[in-house]
Amino acid sequence: MNAPSVPAKTIADPNALPSYLNADNLGPWGNYLQQVDRVAPYLGSLARWIETLKRPKRALIVDVPIELDNGTVAHFEGYRVQHNLSRGPGKGGVRFHQDVTLSEVMALSAWMSVKNAAVNVPYGGAKGGIRVDPKLLSRAELERLTRRYTSEIGFIIGPNKDIPAPDVNTNEQVMAWMMDTYSMNSGSTSTGVVTGKPISLGGSLGRKEATGRGVFVVGTEAAKHLNIDIVGARVVVQGLGNVGGVAAKLFHEAGARVISAQDHKGIVYAPNGIDVPALLEHVSRHGSVEGYPTEPLDSDAFWALECEFLIPAALESQITEKNAPFVRARMVIEGANGPTTPAADDILRERNILVAPDVIANAGGVTVSYFEWVQDFSSFFWSEDEINQRLVRIMQEAFGAVWQVAQDNRVTLRTATFIVACTRILQAREMRGLYP
Ligand SMILES: NC(=O)C1=CN([C@@H]2O[C@H](COP(=O)(O)OP(=O)(O)OC[C@H]3O[C@@H](n4cnc5c(N)ncnc54)[C@H](OP(=O)(O)O)[C@@H]3O)[C@@H](O)[C@H]2O)C=CC1
Ligand SMILES: O=C(O)CCC(=O)C(=O)O
């Protein structure tokens, strides 16, 4: 009788993904992996490096303990993920939000790698976050949290290593605290360690508005291809924070009609167009669109509004297979990172709705962050006009190149952007080689 054949020694599959990378349902990280799978057929011989894109280079989880104002000690979970450093130091924002997870930060860091390569700024991709609802903290608690987090991640960030910036619920003040903490710990003032700083601390003119401005530029470029006139065009925006607020303002100033805006507390709707400056003033005073005079509209109807531009500018996975069949926009301009799931992408494509993806549409922020970093290194600061002109040129050229790749390969703008960006990343990976 033959004995069953049993290998003398079972070796774990050396190419198996680490467990935290390969679960079936990983939310934004799972969506990113699907986007990478879609680009693989277009990478030629570079496809042999594709696994590089599916594994973050480095993921740091830190405990961030702080003393609350009432004397108790609270522990928060913080992350900094450096997805890819082949093209330069890590670059990407820091998010403070109660739903932040490691897998979400991994996805956000990976989209930074793609975005930075798409606009050809010399960075890899990184992102950070703390799982906290900052609205529940006092200003002093927020400062302690930011400083402790900065110290905990301090050994992997730096002007030549990884440069954080603002994201959801972080701003110039948070960046100032991060810069100060890093500088104290390293023994010299280091303005280049973060971008999105106050102007008085080496920040750049135009950075605060840059992401929304980039969204507007990409929207107007895409509109030219679809023969849409901006004047009178209808715009619907989700999220009136830094990105959505500026984008809404610029569309309004260009003569478009912003007909609806949503944040986590409410929806504003005015079919003839909202007075955007008045709405933004209301939001800055009350923290939300809630309470602003409006015609009634529920959340399902919001996504189904007929419009030329639908701009998700809040969080991930807002346009899904559930609401994508009802979207009646001519195009979706992604101000947020990861707002459209791959299943929704397919539905929108079938329905002939153009999607200008996050990895190009919201790249204006990091582009001006790059300008800020360059200005800090040279201690020579540019005028706002110079910055905006350079920003517009980079965004127009990058979007034009992506548009052409999409036409040539008959793929979506998302896959086209991934083709351009992943080619750059993997070429750098190949040229550098693997061994020290
Ligand atoms: N800041 C930047 O430079 C860049 C940001 N991004 C991306 O843009 C998006 C927005 O970032 P940013 O504007 O900086 O963040 P902000 O914190 O300034 O604003 C976030 C906005 O999203 C709204 N929001 C949050 N949760 C929901 C929800 N569940 N439903 C509806 N609205 C919601 C917030 O409303 P409320 O206040 O009511 O919670 C707020 O209006 C994020 O995806 C971010 O990653 C991308 C590139 C650069
Ligand atoms: O300005 C930066 O460095 C990064 C901004 C960011 O986090 C993003 O583009 O998502």
From TrEMBL:
Gene3D superfamilies: 1.10.8.1210, Leucine Dehydrogenase, chain A, domain 1, NAD(P)-binding Rossmann-like Domain
Occurrences of domain Glutamate/phenylalanine/leucine/valine/L-tryptophan dehydrogenase C-terminal (ranges): 204-433
A Pfam entry, by short name: ELFV_dehydrog_N
GO annotation (BP), single: L-glutamate catabolic process
Keyword annotations: NAD, Nucleotide-binding, Oxidoreductase
InterPro entries from the UniProt entry: Aminoacid_DH-like_N_sf, Glu/Leu/Phe/Val/Trp_DH, Glu/Leu/Phe/Val/Trp_DH_C, Glu/Leu/Phe/Val/Trp_DH_dimer, Glu/Leu/Phe/Val_DH_AS, Glu_DH, NAD(P)-bd_dom_sf, NAD_bind_Glu_DH
Residues with site note (Important for catalysis): D167
Binding site for NAD(+): T211, N242
Binding site for substrate: K91, K115, S369
Active site location: K127 (proton donor)
Family: Belongs to the Glu/Leu/Phe/Val dehydrogenases family.
Protein name per its UniProtKB record: Glutamate dehydrogenase
